[in-house]
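To whoever is covering the structure queue this week,

Two jobs came back overnight. Logging them here so there's a record in the thread.

Job A:
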Amino acid sequence: MDQVRKRRAGGGGPFLRFGLPMTVFSVVGFYGLVHLTQGRREMINAHSPAQLQPLNKEGELKSEGKKLDLNEELRKLNEKVNINDYENKPVPKLSSDE
């Protein structure tokens, strides 16, 4: 009989044990995520479309300086890096004695 009284006095039922903590974590998590994503929304809204550089018909950026040509940039990169000229270097193995 004493165990039943202790259980009822301190237990509080399944809602207080499981439901209330789940509800509190859900509400706090929702407001926490709103706070975290608000900074992202502010950054997106800070960049107005007028600040972005528009593309012309060929897909090049409009700029005051020289034109950006992607094919030319790819050719320059291919001249710097030769993917067929390489050598395999073994990775040193760790000894199990240490």
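Job B:
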Amino acid sequence: MKGGSMDKDKSPEDKLKEQVETDSKKKIRSKREGREIMSNIGVFGMVGWTVAIPALIGIAIGSWLDRRYESTVSWTITMLVVGMTAGCINAWRWVNEKRKGD
């Protein structure tokens, strides 16, 4: 019974034990059904694109800024760093949400 009054009566150790058992069963079922490898490949691909696309957008914007405005600062490198940072933050959030959902 999830979220019911029974959960309030359980000790933290019992709750942890239940969570570990649930996670173990999911993992065993995924391995048996052959989904674990494909799921991991999908996660790696998604994380890669989540970082790469903002980085490429940053490069494009930075290159445009470099052509448009003369400066001692390289806008391409600056915007690449901004894009990579945004991409890493997005990937971190996505992985955390994915982890919570499993």
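Note for Job B: The CA atoms of residues 17 and 55 lie 42 Å apart.

Please reply-all if you pick these up so we don't duplicate work.
Q.
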